[in-house]
Specification:
Strand content: under 5%
Largest sheet: none
Helix content: over 70%
Number of helices: 14
Radius of gyration: 19 Å
Order of helices and strands: HHHHHHHHHHHHHH
Length: 321
């Protein structure tokens, strides 16, 4: 898995560039374009959620339920045989990914109403850190630069949470929820990469989102979150959230993770942070405290080191091959 991923990462330009670099493989170029579209969709997620007048768990439920509804015709007509033949291992992994996605939404969405969009998004996109740690547990040995980047990013997290603690305990609790959401997302990305080796995007996404929908419905019923009675503007935002963040964002992430690998895919999600912060500032007038900007910069710098380490490792692997 590691060798295949490093080769794929190298095709994206991740390795040390030769004197006359070859043009990227058409498949990789397509994946990168789709990844850029996915990040654009994900960047709308946090501001839309913050602006939607509905309970956080209900928003999470409806974005997944609507996505399942949109995928059902394709899944049951064109992918019925594939769904039946997924195999027990792939099916369980897709269900587990759906469960982790439910946890991701269940803890992250409430954080957007407790702390700033910029802080919440920065913390939830620490996914590459947790992806690296999980890959280490599975036998992958990250270089020293990865650990240095991880430590720097953690320093940024400490600084950011310190700023939010000075604002209110509620903001600090929101930071903790967002951080937990980033941890859950790491498992979701890794499991998705595993299943997508042999399962199509539609089949995997359908099982994953269906699992997430069922679990979030149970969470809504247990917590008493209202699932109806919203105004037309709220339903419109829920539909827009489903199209942009869920169908374009998460589904395209599921599409490209097979070719680009979990490391590149999860790292690219970092670009959601400046995108969401900019949209929140322009649309919601929500500007983070001045002291939080240095902390955000430290987090991104640390995660940048992780990217550089991954690119260096990929280049060395390609040279050995």
């Amino acid at each position: 898995m590691t060798s295949a991923r490093t080769r794929s990462d190298a095709l994206t330009g991740a390795g040390a560039a030769p004197a006359e670099p070859a043009p990227p493989h058409p498949g990789v170029r397509t994946d990168l374009l789709l990844l850029a579209l996915a990040i654009a969709g994900l960047s709308l997620s946090a501001p839309l959620i913050a602006a939607t007048a509905a309970p956080a768990l209900a928003i999470a439920f409806w974005r997944n339920a609507m996505a399942v509804g949109a995928l059902t015709p394709f899944a049951l007509v064109r992918h019925r045989a594939e769904l039946r033949g997924m195999g027990r291992r792939n099916l369980l992994a897709a269900v587990a990914a759906g469960a982790l996605l439910a946890v991701h939404f269940g803890v992250w969405l409430p954080s957007l109403h407790m702390t700033s969009v910029a802080s919440s998004t920065a913390l939830v996109t620490t996914t590459p850190i947790w992806t690296t740690l999980l890959m280490r547990v599975r036998g992958h040995r990250p270089p020293a630069l990865v650990w240095a980047g991880t430590a720097l990013a953690f320093l940024g997290v400490v600084l950011l949470t310190g700023v939010d603690l000075s604002l209110s305990p509620r903001a600090l609790a929101g930071d903790a929820l967002a951080l937990a959401g980033g941890m859950a997302a790491a498992g979701y990305v890794l499991l998705g990469a595993q299943v997508r080796r042999t399962v199509s995007t539609v089949a995997y996404s359908y099982v994953c989102y269906a699992t997430t929908t069922v679990l979030l419905l149970a969470a809504c019923l247990c917590s008493g979150s209202s699932l109806a009675g919203y105004g037309g503007g709220t339903w419109l935002k829920l539909a827009l959230l489903t199209v942009t963040a869920q169908l374009l964002g998460h589904s395209l992430i599921n599409r490209v993770v097979k070719g680009l690998g979990p490391s590149v895919t999860s790292t690219a999600i970092l670009l959601e942070t400046p995108g969401a912060a900019l949209i929140a500032a322009l649309w919601l007038g929500q500007t983070p405290p001045v002291l939080s900007w240095p902390a955000l910069a430290v987090i991104l710098a640390g995660l940048g080191l992780v990217i550089v380490a991954g690119r260096t490792t990929a280049g060395r692997a390609v040279k050995k091959d």
